[in-house]
Fold each of these.
Amino acid sequence: MRRAGALIVLLVVWEAAARLGWVSSLLMPPPIRVAAVLLELMGSGRLWPHLVVTMLEAGGGLVLGVGVGVVLGLAAALVPPLAELLQPAMTLLNAVPRVILAPLLVIWLGIGLASKVALSFLLVAVTVFFAVYSGIREVDPRLVDRVRTLGGSGLHLLREVYLPSVTAWLLSSLKVAVGFAFTGAVVGEFVASSRGLGYLLSFAQSTYNAALTIALISLVVAVTFSIFAAFERLERWVFRWRREQPFAEPLHAPSAGGASAGSAAIEEEAVQTSRSAAN
Amino acid sequence: MNALEIRDLAVRFGSRQVLHRVSLDVPAGRFVSLVGPSGCGKTTLLRTIAGLVRPSAGALRLLGRSVEGCSREVGILFQEDALLPWRTARENVALGLRFRGVSPADALREADAWLERVGLGGFGAYFPHALSGGMKKRVALAQVLATRPRLLLMDEPFASLDAIVRSLLEADFLSLVRETGVTVLLVTHDLEEALLLSERVVLMSAGPAARITHLYAVPFPYPRDLIGLRADPTFGHLLQQIWADLQREVARMGWEVPA
């Protein structure tokens, strides 16, 4: 609520500044004009093919990058010889600004969809790889001991301990990965393309159309932000086990072999207290 | 017959000798406590029996068979709870059964019955995060007992609890363990707890290179009145004797113990 308020204040000040001539309305067109440009773009139907292309590129890069990043991260963490092979390569890829590979990818894969998906994929996969790799290495060893002493096999260990613990790391890295996926797609389009939001943006920039540029930037922000919010909801659902407040230590002695009527009543009360705390 | 036979067991971590020629018998169906000064290697011994630590020498026989690695006949209760935080109480209890190939529905049904037995019927749907420390201990006990182990190892399972919760849990744990007839080896540094719960107390020397130095028979029959027992003169006498031996043991190592 407060954030929405701050946004409205910012827009009002900006609108006023442009109208009162404090800033050049050529460089900083007022929000209402930007909105009009955006609506016109949407209404005329010219926007959608570009938006779809960018979404496909970013989505493709995200899905492939998460898939490959998770598999490689798991493999490296669980099979030490693989880690020796993969880690230096990944560290190198992580250290360089990966967007400089965009021109090379265009030469290799052409100016179509593939080169943008590839760039997006590279940005996402490296991030996810490190999240999964370090997530597995920081698994609570007590849980590993617990599952092993209960008679769990390696496969049980993977399913009951490693994958759930790594989900925490993966979900927080996914939110970063969404931004990376769009960075890859849009930057790829800057370099060479005939469609997409990045193509529209570089067109707007080459014609010094500030209103169109700001409109397109707002659109990309809105799209990434909604995906980000969706992942946050997913994260809250996955981590529902963290939400409840702990019970106070019960001061009754539930007799082993079935609770008596008196202690059952106290349990009932404890359950209700916990529910109201959770709400 | 012995549930557990340990002969000249040694454990070393790198150049550090933690256990040196430990021999111990735990007769089937008995409740034995292992006491000793902090850091003497009690926990290491327990983890070795559970198959989590590999011994450097010696023999370990379980129910007459020598074992390597984790055995499904052994259950262990750790000092800190190690319930899976992303599984509900009943799913946690069902875990060991599922590892043994029991179908999910049957495993959950049996888990509910065990939760009932430890006094947590109706709490099955809660995640560990929502349970108090004592409740988590009860879930952990149900989790281990549900796998029907022949030998139950306990590593100071009550250490982190306050005195009231602790004495409630001790009484409930003892009666459940007696009901199931499982052999128990309890590690504790609390001599009173050892005397209250077990039939035999084993004293371990101070580390490094710890071994077992004394054995005591505890003459109180089950079921026991854990509150009244403390007032028994024999109880006080045994407690004093073990204390004296323990102090001598620690003094021999050149360490100080509070009187």
Amino acid sequence: MKKIIIEILIFLLAFLIFWFLIFPISLILKFFKISLIDLKKNNQKTYWYKKKKKPNFNN
Amino acid sequence: MKVILGISAFYHDSAACLIDEGKIIAAAQEERFTRIKHDSNYPFNSIEYVLNFSGYKLNQVDKIIFYEKPFLKLDRLIKTYITYAPKGFSSFTQFFLTWLQGKIFQKNKLFKLLKKHDVNFNDKNRITFSEHHLSHASSAFFPSPFEKALVLTADGVGEWATTTVAIGNGNKLEIKKEIRFPHSLGLLYSAFTYFAGFKVNSGEYKLMGLAPYGNPIFYEIIKSKLIEIKHDGSFRLNQEYFDYSVGFKMTSEKFNQLFKKKPRDSKKEKITQFDMDLAASIQKVTEEVIIKILKSIKEEFNIENLCLAGGVALNCVANGQIIKNEIFKNVWIQPASGDAGGSLGAALAYWHLHLNEERIVEKKDSMKGSYLGPKFSQSEIEKRLRKIGAKYELLSDNLILDKSVELINEGKVIGWFQGRMEFGPRALGSRSILGDPRSQKMQKILNMKVKFRESFRPFAPSILKNDLKDWFELNSDSPYMLLVSNINHKIQKKMTTDEEKLFGIEKLNISRSKIPAVTHVDYSARIQTVDGEYNKKFFDLLTKFKDLTGCPILINTSFNVRGEPIVNTPEDAFNCFMGTELDALIIGNFCLLKRNQKDSLKKIYKEKFELD
């Protein structure tokens, strides 16, 4: 029973985060034509990204 | 600081590896212990094994490295959901639960789990994290026999990177450039694996095996609609055709419309020529991308040696093309190229890159033949066999080889269990099923009666290294069975025009060479060269078989059935032996014949493992 209640609460939390945080941010970014992942279809010469950061072992 | 434990877990193929003063001591995949194929759970048993084997308690381990960075992965997932919202709500709720249950607090989770190995382990700061593709690149370069090399890694996705190019030099390794999610060669191949009705993250090698039966008639469609490839091999996938970013499927409705059908339902639909053509087409595109990348980076960096890792490096057909194209003078591929090998790479990355410790380059490589798993002494095997109730005969070192060769020459199929278990997906003569490659019916027997798997799937040959050129058109060593090459034309038997017209799988019944059981329909074979340095007994067996028959080759397939992880213990080997139509089991110096075993010990094995 306890497990079911926790799962329902997590679902509600996920629902709230998705529709009241992720979705509004998505709408705003779409309005300004900003994409957080690389979906652009530009005529770039290459699709490689230069890696600048040195490796670290932090989380 | 000297002892480092590497861990890969929570996606697929969990594993653990322990290095001591930079030397690889032990490594194993969790699936071998739990008997759950591609087990993704915390690798408790693997960690226990590497600790016991090396004689350390967890509290004596100086650093524990996890193979990827959970927060960077979370960053990628959140940004992806933001990009696609409102699409993706269903998968978000599922992903949210998983992340809340552990991944956000992964360090705490790992700490609690690690404490189960040793209550005296109290220092959470000993746990640290490497990047997914840095782990892959390290697993490819640091154990390699090269002082300097270019390193290419390619898989589905890690944190953000899906493909990387790095330069390794001495004890340094620097990732120079990368291609980022959602553009992924691994995910493209997996999308076709899914569409052809095979399981993602495990069925990719089946698609590769299916490719030679088909014609690449969809090659142009794939290139014009699904992937844009630049002259330097960098690429971009048209996301309209895929669903993997925030969905539960790999391909979208538009993908179905493009190929005018839905993904094959493996329970209801048989494999058709369409699936074969699809496999051939995506294989051709994959090879083209890899070759273009390699030609371009060779020109850019002018380094003669190449190291490969990541799931895509398990595509042995593409690897064979890399060798054939002679772009690089030397090529070395990590035998545990999938995520399991990430545990090894993470540990080595910390040792060399963070601690700046010296790297000793070994002439062959530092993988010890990839025989890094558990082993069992003669007395331990006997104790276990007796407990099971097995009937066995103990033979001398020489007689056990004679007996094995005699059985194989009689057309029998034997289970071969010797020494330390292999690390990585390939059986290399420690946990293998062996047969006679000269037999025309052996492929069918092995597929249907022993392995219980699809009839189209080919078997691989193990060959004495010195005899390689007489039998295959390969000029390179292939100790880890990661290269595909053609059978030497001198021993090929050409098909007649009528035979050429046969439907894909029917071609299998045509004898195409002197070693039909390991000759694929396109005259190719996935080769393991054996030189005896790390597996003397297997080398001696091949030598004896050659002495008796003139053939220096044996069929070598993994000791398991379809859907089962490769056997680990003598009990696993005995269960597989009694659950299949294997004729004999050679385990250490013990010979077990099926006809001598009690009927009551026979297992119903076929339904025991979920088909992959």
